[in-house]
Amino acid sequence: MHDLTQEALAHELGVTRQTILAIEKGKYDPSLDLAFRIARYFGVNINEIFIYDETPHT
Amino acid sequence: MKQNTFYILAGIVGLIEVGAFWLSVKYLMPLLISAVFIAGIVLLYGAWRKITDRQVDERATLINQKAGMATFMVFWVIFFATSLGSAVIGLGAPPFPHFPQPPDQGPGGVNESLRPLGDGPGLVNASIRAPGDGLIRLGHFGYLQLALLFLMFFLYVGFRIYYARKYGEWETDEEQD
To answer: Residue A24 and residue B166: Cβ atoms within 8 Å?
Structure first.
């Protein structure tokens, strides 16, 4: 849709490509700041990208 | 400064530190290695701040924080246990340090009762130790400290790898070459 690579998105958001990949894979939960920046970058609400998971993380 | 340049500089500083340590041992100058080590760390810190291509984001910071905290907690337990053991040895040892007593303290002196009856070496002379013996024994404690510090280093590396894997450091996907 956006024709965007992880590398390009990471560069736009000021993080590493590994961080974008870890978020996609569900290995890392981004901070609120980064989550808002991602949502703003794509022009959507934050809850359209991230869903609050009630199961506790170990 | 490029990050790889920093690693080369760190290697050079490490070699200088080894040389300084060797000189310190040869000339028995403990202050030399202490001063060179601190100067080396200050130099590396200054160089580290000048790295331009370093990528540290919030995930890397989280991994470092978690690894550092876990290292600190484990190290604290090990250090406490080791210190308790050392304290037990220290409590069981005679008072420290043992400075040599003068062979003759005159009538009523502490060593009077230990003076030999004959001309041969008595208990007093036998118990006299070479000057600096206590300091040398204290220096041996440095081995234990260094071993603990190396343990701390390896603990950090281990926890760093663990948390890096946990937070997807080496995950691959279709975009990766």
So the answer is: no
State the best of A11, A18, A37 to mutate against chain B, taking most chain B CBs within 10 Å: A18
Task: Using CB atoms, pick whichever of B55, B168, B175 lies closest to residue A22.
Answer: B168
- Ordered by start, the domain boundaries in chain B are 1-54, 56-100+120-169
For residue B115 the two structure tokens come to 């003076």
Backbone angle region of B13, left / alpha / beta, with phi > 0 → left and psi within -120 to 50 → alpha: alpha
What is the ipTM metric for this complex?
0.83
Query: Which element (helix H / strand E) includes B110?
Result: none
What's the rounded Cα separation, in Å, for the pair B158 and A38? Answer: 32
3-state secondary structure of B1: coil
Q: Does A35 touch chain B (CB under 8 A)?
A: no
pLDDT in tens, B47-95: 999 988 777 789 999 999 999 999 999 999 999 998 898 888 878 766 6
Question: What is the residue type of A1?
Answer: M
- Rounded Cα–Cα distance for residues B129 and B99 (Å): 7
Residue B101 pLDDT level (bands cut at 50, 70, 90): low
Chain A residues within 8 A of B62 when measuring between CB atoms: 28
Nearest CB partner across the interface for B57, out of A7, A14, A25: A14
Q: Which of B3, B53, B54, B58 to mutate to test the interface with A (most CBs of A within 10 A)?
A: B58
CB contact under 8 A, A15 and B168: no
Output A27 or B95, whichever has higher pLDDT: A27
